[in-house]
Amino acid sequence: MKLLESEKEIISNELQDIVDEFQSKPENLIPILQKVQAKLGYLPLPAMEKIAQALNIPAVDVFGPATFYNQFRLNPPGEHQIKVCMGTACYMAGGNIAMESFERRLNIKEGETSPDRKYSLERVACVGCCAMAPVVVVDDKVERSVTPTRVDGIILSFETNGGKKEMETGQGKEGRKELEQSDREEPQKEGEHNS
Amino acid sequence: MNSALIEEYYAKIKSEADAKIETLREKPVVWIGTASCGKAAGAEKVKEAFEQAIKNNNLDVRVIEVGCMGYCYAEPLAVISKPGFPSICYGYVDEGLANRLVEDFLMGEDPCYEYALVALEANDYFPTFSDFPRGVYEEKIILEHCGFIDPGDIDHYIAREGYAALAKALRMRPEEIISEMKDSMLRGRGGAGFPTGIKWETCRMAEGEPKYVICNGDEGDPGAFMDRNILESNPHQVIEGMIICAYAVGASRGYLYIRAEYPQAIMQVKKAIQQARGKGLLGSRVMGSEFGFDLEVFEGSGAFVCGEETALISSMEGKMGIPRQRPPHPAVSGFHDKPTVLNNVKTFCYVPPVIRKGADWFKSTGTPESPGTAVFSLVGKVSCTGLVEVPMGTTLRNVIFDVGEGTPGEKGFKAVQIGGPSGGCLPESALDLPIDFDSLQEAGAIMGSGGLVVMDEDDCMVAVARFFLEFTQHESCGKCTFCRLGTRQMLDLLTDITKGEGKPEHLETLRELAEDIKAGSLCNLGKTAPNPVLTTLRYFRDEYEAHINERVCPARMCPELIVFYIAPEKCSKLCNVCVGSCPTEAVYTREDGLKAINQEKCVKCNNCLKACPPEYNAVIKLSPPELLKEKEGNQ
């Protein structure tokens, strides 16, 4: 997936500050990656190369941890992030059925982002709400007992009101919301170019 | 240490906290459980509804957010304490009930017992926890305050004897604390059950400065959420335990390693650390003494293997979380090669009560070899899901059927999965096992971090084993060949079996691979990864055989081995629910008005089966798929 202009700008202007904030110590690599991901939403290749440069370590020592830990993502998050819980209780209650339903409806596979960057779909290992299985986390809001019908409902709510209602009632962190909102304009523009 | 000074210091913060809590008793208070699980069930809307109704009616009532008391099945939960009444806990609260409670109870005199779950204090009107089987079997040591105190206010914890243990510990010599811990025989609650006192002693004796104390909050077991709940509901208990440990081993710095997937836990712990600093309980002079200690949070990035202590340390040093050879143990050479005590969240939670009440009190609960209590997250096909704390030695049967009230619906109990991906599936016949570290190991499972997933006749044991193996295979760090490649081979075999492509000799290959992986792996992830397969092979071999020999999934769960079928003799022409419920338009209306399924379009999502009204129950699953021809031929 191509980098957006805004992302290129962050990579060239802000990465150095983040690395400096952690005293350019390689042992702080994980907090650095976490912070970069909080800014960009994911870890594009150029960003990882730049971090390696700034820390003065081989790029492979950045790729290693970035691909090792589940928290780090290598493709951009969608405007709406859908995380299907695949913990034991959710799996037993039909988490895989919910996952398949999303895959079918969004036409993307687990771990992918739709080309217009509107949705991303991933699996997570237990969000700790096992009593409400199967659980899907949609933009930081936990949805309980998700059936194929509810999957259609979730997607429909985004298609009809642009997810505004979800944004109002969403329980996400304030900072995250701002980030998402400021990011939101960009992908749509790119979508228009494509079409 | 100057005992008198510390005593005075504690008396001062305690009396401040008591005064604050006393003001809460004078007026009505609504306590709402807003841990992650409560929020998922809609607790925030309930809170808003209460606040709005209270404001609209100009009432002098406070609404306070608390953590989770473990009754997950009845979320959202609210407790109302009103002077003159016992405190009453209400379950399944929604906005309508919130308004009703404000009108009838807060403004009137009717506590609406019809919606009450339980009363918190003994009274003449409504039963308390101890009047239910669950309350009889449960004995709460570390979950005692969870859900009853405001985790965001340190005074709530102090008023309930919080930090009293720290004040006592600071007046003891470090050696005395360690000998008390050894005497208590507290075993690490991360799963392996290593004696905590011995770990602390090793660290105290080890050469090297500075020493570190790390709390392992990297709860990665799918199906377990007690650490998250404790960190969200009562973070100070963990912090107090860590400070006592630091004083005992001579550490000056500590870290709480918490999964980034638990944002609310991280937020509560950070807040708690701030408040503890404000009260002088962390910092250069803890409670005004010479002892200095400070804490910070490290956000783990989500890797199951980081629950292993050497992998966790490696990830804190900015590297991939790959375990290393032990010895040296972290207690001798850990974080930055310095002596490091690493304990689980629950283990630290036991420290304050053990120090406050003594080792003998602790040993009076549980079994001689495993004293104290065990915390389980009871989930799956069980009526009363939630967090449960029972004395060690309680049987699984008591936990599942008395505390959890058995399986819901008509389906019978089939198995219980204990200990997550490292544990095993135990059948009905193993239910009378007392729960402790050693007897579970004998049955092929492990205590693990305490996930208990109950399964009924609708759950396929082969699919369950495959699920866990898929998880460990994905989470294997790749260091040891047997774990990296062996789990892959096992997963491929199991996938074939669930698709009906298994061969009889596969079972023996699975067993051999399992033994090799156990022998050839360095850390416990690999050593225990085959457990789910081994236990299911041991107790549910017939299911494997049915998959292989007859292409039948006895539980009718494996998609490749089942077909959905609408029985014409049960179907009604007057009902169209299934047609509407189908996400792929596979269900259609036949010319005679009855419904049928186009098998080519069917994705086996279960939706029509759930949608079909119980008076018809016309949708059935057939296994093997060949049965379909027979059925259709009969028409």
Plain-language structure description:
The complex is a heterodimer of chains A (195) and B (635). The radius of gyration of chain A is 18 Å and the shape is elongated. A 4-stranded mixed β-sheet of chain A has the order 2-1-3-4, with helices on one face. Chain A starts with a helix and ends with a helix. Chain A has 2 domains: 5-68; 80-194, 3-Layer(aba) Sandwich (Glutaredoxin). In chain A, strand 3 (136-138) and strand 4 (141-143) form a beta hairpin. The longest helix of chain A has 21 residues, at 174-194. Helix content of chain A is 54%, strand content 9%. Chain A has 10 helices and 4 strands; from the N terminus they run αααααβααβββααα. Chain A is an alpha+beta fold. Chain A has helices at residues 5-13, 15-21, 29-40, 45-55, 60-68, 88-92, 95-106, 148-161, 164-169, 174-194, and strands at residues 80-85, 119-124, 136-138, 141-143. The relative contact order of chain A is 0.12. Chain B has 635 residues and is α/β, with parallel strands linked by helices. Chain B folds into 5 domains: 21-132, 3-Layer(aba) Sandwich (Glutaredoxin), CATH 3.40.30; 162-362, NADH-ubiquinone oxidoreductase 51kDa subunit (Rossmann fold, 3-Layer(aba) Sandwich), CATH 3.40.50.11540; 373-456, Ubiquitin-like (UB roll); 461-550, NADH-ubiquinone oxidoreductase 51kDa subunit, iron-sulphur binding domain (de novo design (two linked rop proteins), Up-down Bundle), CATH 1.20.1440.230; 562-634, Alpha-Beta Plaits, CATH 3.30.70. Chain B is 42% helix and 14% strand. Chain B contains 26 helices and 18 strands. Chain B has a 5-stranded mixed β-sheet with strand order 2-1-3-4-5, covered by helices on one side. The longest helix of chain B is centred in the N-terminal third of the chain and has 24 residues, at 3-26. The N and C termini of chain B lie far apart (89 Å). The model of chain B has no long low-confidence stretch (mean pLDDT 92). Chains A and B meet through helix 3, helix 5, helix 6, helix 7 and helix 8 of A and helix 2, strand 10, strand 14 and helix 18 of B.
